[in-house]
Amino acid sequence: INAVLRASKVCQKVFQNLVTSDTVIKKDRSPVTVADFSAQAVVNKILYESFPNDPIVGEEESGSLRGDSGKELRNKVLSLVNTVLDTPLNDNELLETIDRGSFPGGSSGRMWTLDPIDGTMGFLRGDQYCIGLALIIDGDVHLGVLGCPNLPVDLKVPEGERGSLFIAVKGQGAFQHKFSSTEETQICLADISSPLAASFCESVVAEHSSHSDAAKIASLLGITKPPLRMDSMCKYCAVARGDADIYLRLPVSMDYEEKIWDHAAGCILIKEAGGIISDINNKPLDFSLGRTLKSNKGIVVAHSKIHGQVIDAVQQVILKK
Ligand SMILES: Nc1ncnc2c1ncn2[C@@H]1O[C@H](COP(=O)(O)OS(=O)(=O)O)[C@@H](OP(=O)(O)O)[C@H]1O
Ligand SMILES: [Mg+2]
Ligand SMILES: [Mg+2]
Ligand SMILES: [Mg+2]
């Protein structure tokens, strides 16, 4: 929790200091690159202090921070990281710390998986993004922590306080608290018995999840509410606390392999909040095969009372293609 909250703080600093209206207009990705590396360094460092022997499967690697060509970026990242760490890092320690995330994954032992910023596009727009961290033991997710700096504490009060943290521990339930307090509330999916009344949640970017297939599935299920489009693993958080009922991630290309850091923390959050998570073929997500979910295609999340019906509709639409 400490690691995710400190990384969230770094990301917020980057947004305040480096993202301007020009950034979005010029499609300049440099601020999110700074935030990505900084957040991965902060989480990896804090994990290392408590669990020096645990390997980490992290999204980023330090290549572009090395050498003369990486000096400017490296200096930016280093000074940011050192504003939130208790013991400062030097140049080499920074690179080493980021690259502690290079573990290939697999089916045995303990490992963490980290997405330092999920929803890079959302971050740049000032919309939703998430710092997602999960602990996997023997291929099974045991803990998930998701920091959502821009997610309203209560979606019904969109102008209210932002900054929501989600925690799920295997067998112990799913919880939310505000960044500003440690008081936890247990969360669960909205109780729903028919897909007719459901609302669904999908990616903002259609390249990550087919909007047209989702619209066909919604129409087959008789869903009339417009989809809630949101970047990042915040979608898992939204469904886990009942803001929406169904999360669909429908493959756009058949050769894309989903990354474990994009789903591990969300997967346990959904299960602990009483939902079912599978791929489009109703197979459980398999986190034991390395850095990607190579045996899965897409994601379907829903309450247990309607997950089967959603899968039937998904299959009809996908098989027809
Ligand atoms: N082709 C394709 N299909 C599916 N997923 C892909 C694809 N390409 C990229 N990615 C991954 O999508 C992650 C962001 O997913 P989101 O659901 O947040 O998408 S979006 O922000 O709403 O567009 C994004 O994570 P981040 O890079 O951490 O932002 C990618 O890992
Ligand atoms: Mg991601
Ligand atoms: Mg990322
Ligand atoms: Mg990425």
Q: Give the CATH class of the largest domain.
A: Alpha Beta
Structural class: alpha+beta
Radius of gyration: 19 Å
Q: Give the % helix.
A: 25-40%
Taken as a percent bin, the fraction of beta residues is 15-25%
Assign the CATH architecture of the largest domain. Answer: 2-Layer Sandwich
Please trace the helix and strand order, writing H or E for each element: HHHEHHEHEEEEEEHEHEHEEH
Q: What overall form do the CA principal axes indicate? A: globular
The total count of helices amounts to 10
Q: Which topology of the largest domain does CATH recognise?
A: Fructose-1,6-Bisphosphatase, Chain A, domain 1
Low-confidence stretches: none
CATH superfamily of the largest domain: Fructose-1,6-Bisphosphatase, subunit A, domain 1
Q: How many DSSP E strands?
A: 12
Q: How many separate structural domains? A: 2
Average pLDDT metric? 96
**Largest sheet, if any?**
7 strands, mixed
Task: Explain what this protein looks like in three dimensions.
The chain is an alpha+beta fold and 321 residues long. It has 2 domains: 2-186, Fructose-1,6-Bisphosphatase, subunit A, domain 1 (Fructose-1,6-Bisphosphatase, Chain A, domain 1, 2-Layer Sandwich); 195-319, D-Maltodextrin-Binding Protein, domain 2 (3-Layer(aba) Sandwich), CATH 3.40.190. 36% of the residues lie in helices and 21% in strands. The chain has 10 helices and 12 strands. It has helices spanning 2-18, 21-25, 30-50, 71-84, 91-99, 120-125, 211-221, 234-240, 264-272, 304-319, and strands spanning 56-58, 110-118, 130-137, 140-152, 162-169, 173-178, 185-186, 200-202, 228-229, 246-249, 275-278, 299-303. The strands form 2 sheets. The chain has a 7-stranded mixed sheet, with helices on both faces. Helix 7 links the parallel strand 8 (200-202) and strand 9 (228-229). Helix 1 (2-18) crosses helix 4, helix 3 (30-50) packs across helix 5 and helix 8 runs parallel beside helix 9 (264-272). It is globular. Residues 59, 115-118, 120 line the site of one magnesium ion.
